[in-house]
Amino acid sequence: MDAEQLRECAHKMVDFIADYYKNIENYPILSQVQPGYLRELLPDSAPARPESLTNVLDDVQSKILPGVTHWQSPDFFAYFPSNSSTAGFLGEMLSAGINMVGFSWISSPAATELEMIVLDWLAKALNLPDEFLSTGKGGGVIQGTASEAILVVLLAARDKVLRQIGKDNIGKLVAYCSDQTHSALLKACKIGGIHTENCRVLKTDPSTEYALSPESLGEAISQDLASGLIPFFLCATVGTTSSTAVDPLRELGKIASNNGLWFHVDAAYAGSACICPEFRHFIDGVEEADSFNMNAHKWFLTNFDCSALWVKDRSALVESLSTNPEYLKNKASQDNMVVDYKDWQIPLGRRFRSLKLWMVLRLYGLENLQAYIRKHIELAKKFEELVKLDPRFEVVAPRNFSLVCFRLLPKENNLELANRLNRALLDAVNSTGKLFISHTVLSHKYVLRFAVGAPLTEERHVVAAWTTLQEKAFDLLTNFTE
Predict the structure, then answer these.
(1) Where N6-(pyridoxal phosphate)lysine occurs, residue numbers (predicted)?
(2) Measured over all CA atoms, what is the biggest interatomic distance in the chain, rounded to whole angstroms?
(3) 45 three-state secondary structure
(4) Angle (CA) 187 191 192, round 5°
(5) Three-state SS string across 347-410, please?
(6) Per-residue pLDDT tens over the stretch 111-162
(7) Angle at 81 between CA 94 and CA 236, to 5 degrees
(8) Can you name the residues that pair with 294 across neighbouring β-strands?
């Protein structure tokens, strides 16, 4: 394919994507296909001869899109958002076109240096402590997901402790989190060789708004120390997956510091909101943390994947994750003149992801990004108000950001019946194709989650979603039986 053929095909692809967004509200939000549908529609083997892009795009339209759940739809209210944007898409396109593999500085100097600069920009926008900037001993790195971020810092924390006490003591290491912490931590412990029985998942309840209690953490650490175990890692969350609870960072951080634990803060979803001065207080106490993570690909208009991780001491990552085979040696690295991001992550290879974050920050600017976050929070407030006005429903947990946790109440006060009723409501609403919501369980209650965050969502979409919920609730309350 020469340059002119590329131009022609790229124009067709951009037109296809533009039409997709233009018509995205016409698709059922949650794919309505059955498992295995696509195998019936596609050949058993690859074509021997090339096909035209037009034919391929026709198949995307007729065969692929019916099996897509449309995360960018304005009626997508499930999970947490995974934002796309013109700026993010253009950055992704440019990254794909250049297609470099930036494992070390010398493999593409601009990729490393832009990543350092753009993560310093974002750290300053979040008002993170100076220790997290690349100008000191720390710095930022783009991981694929928050799960990878948790894994790499847990490995760094593990190895830092084992260098002091001996690797044979790994069976004594204990990690701490709440029962609202993302499951990525338990997975990281499995991968990192931390015994499952040494993962302390501390119970939360409505009395702390599902935040981790410093008292319960202190008690757990004291008990483990008395048993001859070695506390080494604490993961706190700002904006938990179930209900966007916010753990008290300052108090937890002081406990971690006093007991020699690595303190990681997971703000994968809610971290984006903290570029707004009025929401920055949610990460007060981050100065106590050893590492901090937020997903730019969730609520920051940066196409997946782009998870920003900052550490105060980059040498801890390098000592745990570095490799230096002969075929990767070069003068800049050997003389310690540069950062090699291969030593800050699990894989060797890495894409030019900083391009899209750089373009998002430049093409939108912080003021527009702040307005974008505020708009979603206002829309969530609107939905919360609608729920509170209907006595058939209740809001189950405080709304901190743009997630509303609510449930439909049965005619009689029966938890099991209420849970079945809300499962039925979730299925009824999602099967309409008009919107997509997800659920969680809080204090044994089956709870519906309404997360506002799709780039195209307006107030009319929120109101229409509520109307559908009310209609289905009426049907269920009229006809629902045990």
Answers:
(1) 298
(2) 75
(3) coil
(4) 110
(5) CCCCCCCHHHHHHHHHHHHHHHHHHHHHHHHHHHHHHHHHHHHCCCEEECCCCCCCEEEEEECC
(6) 999 999 999 999 999 999 999 999 999 999 999 999 999 999 999 999 999 9
(7) 105
(8) 308
